[in-house]
Design goal:
Helix content is about 30%, strand content about 40%. It has about 130 residues and is of the alpha+beta class. A hairpin with a 4-residue loop joins strand 4 and strand 5 (about 105-120). Helix 1 runs antiparallel to helix 2 and helix 2 crosses helix 3 (about 60-75). It is globular and about 40 Å long. The protein starts with 8 loop residues before the first helix and ends with a strand.
Length: about 130
């Protein structure tokens, strides 16, 4: 992660808590709960890159449909933060996503999230995911 002295502990803790909730809702096949608990409100235009080279999706309805499709393909996801940078009401997270298929195979991807501090909590506004190339 970024220099611990520069990234406030509450930001790191909030992002970690959202990541664990994201993982739990993914495992529970709760795409709607995942999106509602992770992303900013629709008025702030939440967006994510869809996997497989598809165009990005915007808004909670489209995000929910995207995650419903991912949940059909994978049984679990584990998010591993590599770095966090924060300033004011924005933070940037870079990490790796470890996914498990229904056949027990593993897939690894990378992600970047733009976090916004909205209504007293951190929420993802822009979420980029790609197959791992590291």
């Amino acid at each position: 992660m970024g220099d611990a002295a520069q990234v406030p502990a509450d930001v790191v803790q909030a992002i970690a808590a959202h990541s664990r909730a994201f993982e739990a809702r993914f495992a529970a096949k709760d795409a709607a709960g995942l999106v509602e608990g992770y992303y900013v409100p629709d008025v702030l235009d939440p967006a994510a890159s869809a996997p497989g080279g598809q165009k990005p999706v915007t808004g909670k309805r489209a995000l929910t449909a995207m995650f419903e499709a991912q949940i059909r393909d994978f049984t679990a996801i584990r998010l591993q933060t590599v770095r966090i940078e924060a300033s004011g009401d924005m933070a940037f997270e870079m990490g790796r996503a470890h996914l498990t298929t229904h056949q027990g195979q593993n897939a690894v991807g990378r992600y970047c999230v733009l976090w916004r501090h909205v209504a007293g909590e951190w929420r993802a506004q822009i979420d980029f995911f790609a197959a791992d190339g590291w």
